[in-house]
Amino acid sequence: MSRFTDAGQYMYHRFSNPVAITSAPAKATITSNKGGSATVDVAKWLGSPRKNPGKHPYMSDFVDHYIDPTEVTARFAGLAAKFPKLTELIDLPYKTNGYRGKAQAQFGTAAASTVSVTSTACGSEGGNNVTMSLVSQGTASAPLTVSVSGKTVTVSLATNGSGAITSTAGAGRRRGQPQSRRGQAAHRQHVPGQRPRLR
Asked: Phi and psi dihedrals of 69, rounded to 5?
């Protein structure tokens, strides 16, 4: 069994070890690596088919397709307006991000040399408008530099004496980052699983 965590929090141990069978078993035995075991009867998943409830006052089929956050809000408001005696809309004190997320992009193909870029603003709040390019300067012995113009970030990669690109992705502190606050607010860059650096 392996330890399963979600968002850094331990949930439970789990394992997946499918066993090919030709017919439904009557019993299942679970054995511990400490020597203990337990045998239980096997029941059909979800049991027998649900009985016909007959006529009842309940309504169903409120969801007939994938509903995005805007539609969910509209659906809640619509149900509350249609059934005012059964529902009450309550505004909670803290808002969540919902499905909003940061705008992201990846540069590179190999896992060890991929640079990921994440906007500091959510995509719906301007992050989707940020663009970033990694370009060759076409000159020899050029240093790594970063320039920012509005929401356009340009990374000019370092080169050696013959003009070949020498900038690589790796662990450590970020270098060549924009000096302006506007540039710092536009993006963050990192290497997956490591502290950011582009050198």
From this structure: -55, -40
User: 187, 120 in Cβ contact below 8 A?
Assistant: yes
Query: For each successive 10 residues of the chain (199 residues), what is the average pLDDT?
Result: 81 80 85 88 75 75 80 90 91 74 81 79 86 91 92 92 84 44 45 43
- Give residues with Cβ within 8 angstroms of 127, minimum separation 6: 102, 103, 119, 120, 121
Residue 93 and residue 115 in contact, taking contact as beta carbons nearer than 8 Å: no
Q: What is the pTM of this model?
A: 0.44
| C-alpha pair distances (Å), 127 with each of 81, 100, 118, 124 | 35, 11, 9, 7
Q: Is 188 exposed, middle or buried (0-12, 13-18, 19+ CB in 10 A)?
A: middle
CA dihedral 29, 32, 36, 37 (to 10 degrees): -10
Question: How many angstroms separate the CA atoms of 190 and 198, rounded?
Answer: 8
